[in-house]
User: Which sequence fits this backbone?
């Protein structure tokens, strides 16, 4: 039987409660699909500050590097809000992404048919199905480029620089093309090539990689401003979107909000190897921590993504997605509750998904 090693970074607030549910579901999936997982815990964020003085202890980096993958809850909370910027829990989050060389961020925007009414878009705009994958470059571009202040015409000015090298574009393009190949074979590359030189290099490089290595995947190009409109006008036209760090930051939030509920949204960040960091997109929700009201489904679905993209267990991954869909028909946590269904706690939701696993 295959055994995987997974590091759990439970973090703060609702982090421990939601990660516990994902662990239950992953264990159950292992029983059904004949694999086992060796879970190890490590500290990140506020809990790490309290225990060690650092939001990202070296032991956590070492543990994550040695594991097959990492599952993260969420970090942060009012207790640590007054600390200086570089000592805050969120610094640990940026630090672990950097330490693991995570350059590709995958953000699925999926609407479960059961939750169609939670979307801010009209049902006729959503159509029968919405399943978009946004692939965002995570370690380059303007967030990491040269920046500074200078004096222009005697006035203070500030600048940030968008820069991408060909190898940086090639590797994110390959992640996106591979993804498109496994899905609907359609890739939309989003840029601002009508204005930005970095976008012109981006567009040409994506086109070349597509022509040379992925002739079976259809490529379209879209300017970022048009993409922002198209996502709310006709989201069903998209399969996989690939874009730069800053454009992806904005578009992935827009795309995910179409699905209507923050407690449902999973994400993955991948490095050059197979290992990745999997986490819900929401924060530590200190307002509901410890009340049993947290929705664990985003974390459970992050676990499902881990099975698909890092552990080569696509069947178990799909079984978890199906189990979530099944449970949503009968039970909901308070954030997505609708009259007539069973209102359940975080823990009960985890149990129900385990029971529904086939
Ligand atoms: P948040 O995502 O934690 O919460 C926003 C709202 O959504 C809250 O009302 C919360 O109760 C609700 N919510 C979030 N997740 C939920 C879930 N699973 N089930 C039910 N309801 C849920 O964002 P925030 O309030 O802006 O931030 C709180 C803390 O989290 C801050 O310290 C922030 O820095 C941190 N944060 C961490 C991450 C991360 O770890 N990746 C991301 C965002 C924010």
Assistant:
């Amino acid at each position: 039987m295959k055994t995987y090693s997974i590091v759990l970074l439970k973090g703060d607030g609702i982090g421990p409660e939601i990660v516990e549910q994902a662990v239950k579901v992953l264990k159950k999936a292992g029983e059904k699909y004949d694999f086992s997982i060796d879970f190890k815990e490590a500290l990140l964020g506020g809990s790490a500050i309290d225990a060690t003085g650092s939001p990202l202890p070296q032991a956590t980096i070492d543990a994550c590097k040695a594991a097959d993958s990492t599952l993260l809850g969420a970090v942060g909370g009012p207790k640590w809000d007054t600390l200086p910027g570089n000592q805050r829990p969120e610094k640990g989050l940026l630090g672990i992404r950097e330490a693991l060389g995570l350059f590709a961020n995958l953000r699925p925007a999926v609407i479960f048919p059961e939750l169609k009414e939670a979307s801010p878009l009209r049902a006729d705009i959503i159509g029968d199905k919405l399943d978009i994958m946004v692939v965002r470059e995570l370690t380059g571009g303007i967030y990491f480029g040269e920046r500074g202040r200078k004096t222009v015409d005697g006035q203070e000015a500030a600048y940030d620089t968008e820069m991408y090298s060909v190898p940086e574009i090639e590797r994110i393009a390959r992640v996106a093309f591979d993804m498109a190949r496994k899905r609907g074979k359609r890739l939309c590359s989003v840029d601002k090539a009508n204005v930005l030189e970095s976008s012109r290099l981006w567009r040409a490089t994506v086109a070349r990689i597509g022509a040379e290595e992925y002739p079976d995947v259809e490529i379209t190009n879209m300017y970022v401003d048009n993409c922002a409109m198209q996502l709310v006008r006709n989201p069903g036209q998209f399969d996989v979107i690939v874009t730069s760090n800053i454009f992806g930051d904005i578009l992935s939030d827009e795309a995910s909000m179409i699905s209507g509920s923050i407690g449902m949204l999973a994400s993955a960040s991948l490095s050059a190897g197979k290992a990745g960091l999997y986490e819900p997109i929401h924060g530590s929700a200190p307002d509901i921590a410890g009340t049993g009201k947290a929705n664990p489904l985003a974390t459970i679905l992050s676990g499902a993504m881990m099975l698909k993209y890092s552990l080569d267990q696509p069947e178990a991954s799909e079984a978890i997605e199906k189990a979530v869909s099944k449970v949503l028909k009968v039970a909901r946590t308070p954030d997505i509750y609708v009259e007539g269904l069973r209102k359940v706690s975080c823990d009960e939701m985890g149990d129900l998904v385990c029971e529904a696993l086939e």
